[in-house]
């Protein structure tokens, strides 16, 4: 449901104070999104925990979650709320995180697919993230217990099932987990 009548900028969107609900700015229009179901929240929590644990142990990076804003387009502006994002210290030092839009895209964005998400919507978000400079987009499908990893330099996604291990991730030196770990 669109709640804005005229196109607004990312800066105007961030100042609206939309604290009762989940919203994104899509091509200048404010869009309200339905709340996530518990399964979605659990997968987000598990993923954020795994990535944050690596970041704390290695000091390589850190995690943001709760639909943290990422600007994916300008003129008209689009601001997406990533389920989970991971920034390396080299890309955006943790000490610089504050109350403004991130000045750079994350290294990794994780989108957890809800039952109401259409394939077209998911594909659109993946494309936006990659075009703005996100190095890898992880799309997690809780119902089928799969992880798809998209990178700009690949023809299609890498597809991993819950029995497989995710390791040797270029953006995450030393990271290793089973896909099943996302769903516990």
Can you give a write-up of this model?
- Helix content is 22%, strand content 33%.
- The chain is built from three helices and ten strands, in the order H-E-E-H-E-E-E-H-E-E-E-E-E.
- It has helices at residues 10-15, 38-58, 119-132; strands spanning 22-26, 29-33, 61-73, 78-88, 108-112, 136-141, 146-150, 158-161, 165-167, 176-178.
- The chain has a six-stranded mixed beta sheet with strand order 3-4-5-6-7-8.
- The longest helix is centred in the first third of the chain and has 21 residues, at 38-58.
- The chain is globular.
Find the structural class using helix and strand composition.
alpha+beta
Radius of gyration, Cα only, in angstroms?
Answer: 16 Å
Query: Approximately how much beta-strand content do the residues carry?
Result: 25-35%
Report the count of strand segments: 10
Strand order of the largest sheet: 3-4-5-6-7-8
Q: Determine the oligomeric state from the structure.
A: single chain
Q: N-to-C terminal Cα separation, in Å?
A: 33 Å
The residue-averaged pLDDT reads 92
How many DSSP H or I helices? Answer: 3
Q: Approximately how much helix is present in the residues? A: 10-25%
Task: Give me the strand/helix succession.
Answer: HEEHEEEHEEEEE
The coarse overall form would be globular
Largest beta-sheet details: 6 strands, mixed
**Low-confidence sequence ranges:** none
């Amino acid at each position: 449901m669109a709640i804005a009548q005229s196109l607004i900028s990312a800066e105007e969107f961030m100042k609206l104070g939309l604290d009762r609900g989940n919203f994104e700015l899509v091509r200048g229009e404010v869009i309200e999104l339905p709340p996530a179901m518990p399964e979605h929240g659990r997968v987000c929590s598990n993923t954020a925990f795994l990535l944050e644990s690596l970041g704390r142990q290695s000091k390589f990076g850190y995690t943001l979650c709760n639909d943290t804003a990422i600007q994916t387009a300008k003129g008209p502006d689009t601001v997406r709320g990533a389920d989970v994002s991971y920034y390396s210290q080299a890309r955006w030092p943790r000490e610089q995180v504050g109350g403004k839009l991130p000045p750079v895209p994350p290294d990794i964005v994780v989108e957890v697919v809800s039952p109401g998400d259409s394939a077209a919507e998911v594909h659109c978000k993946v494309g936006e993230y990659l075009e703005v400079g996100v190095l890898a987009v992880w799309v997690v499908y809780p119902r089928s217990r799969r992880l798809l990893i998209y990178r700009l330099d690949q023809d299609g996604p890498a597809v991993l099932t819950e029995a497989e291990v995710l390791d040797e991730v270029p953006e995450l030196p030393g990271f290793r987990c089973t896909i099943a770990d996302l769903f516990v």
